[in-house]
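Researcher: Quick one. two chains, 262 residues in total.
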Amino acid sequence: MSIKVNLDIVLSERNMKSKELAEIIGITEANLSILKSGKAKAIRFSTLEAICKALDCQPSDILEYIED
Amino acid sequence: MLLKNNNFMKTIGLLKNLINLLFWGMIAFSIAVFALILMFFISPESIPLMFQGYTMMFDSFYSWNIWIVPFTNLLGFILFIVSIYYLKKCIEPLQKRQFYSEDVIRNLKKSGRLFVIIALGTGLIRIITAFVFSTYANVSVIGGNFGTGHQSAAVASSIENFNLFLLIIGLFLLVFSNAFENGRLLKQENDLTI
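Model:
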């Protein structure tokens, strides 16, 4: 996939666990795991906004485009 | 607007009962006919009186090509039972509201294909037979040439509404299967949207 999700890196920089983030943004851990593993087909703006707010970061910190 | 849950369950329940009735009815009918045919070959005298008239049917089968139409109809009937069996298998996931499950999509496709094969197969054999027999009748029985008018009439009368209806239902099932397949992909995409 050409869009890489760097959520793990941002989470470790903030010393935050997945479970914690899932609770703050209001999604299940299973869904957060799908997002982290890159299996997700799409991400809602509302979810992205909640993640950015919780981690105090920009969308570009989480998502990265990699040329195939 | 979505069908109300209660109405939907009633509809699907009725559909399930009707399909079960049709399927087991055809199985029972097949067993009864098979038993009668066996009795005819093993001990013709033991056939019940009301069915003994049917034994005359076998007397008229003097040539192999006379068997083509009954054999095609028998094959069509067996395939029809199989296609109803596939429809029967679709009902259970639908009752659980698993509209986009692999089972539903696969079985609808199989059933649809069988309906189309039955409709085209039996229809084609009937048309060819009607054409051939009308030619025989023209040459050997009637002895005169009436042109192609009577052949066209024989061929036209051999195309049954049932075949056309079966073909339409088969194509509809294939379209439904395709629609459900698209629905499954959309659902998968929706489920993987975080």
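The mean pLDDT of chain B is 82.
Researcher: Thanks, that's what I needed.
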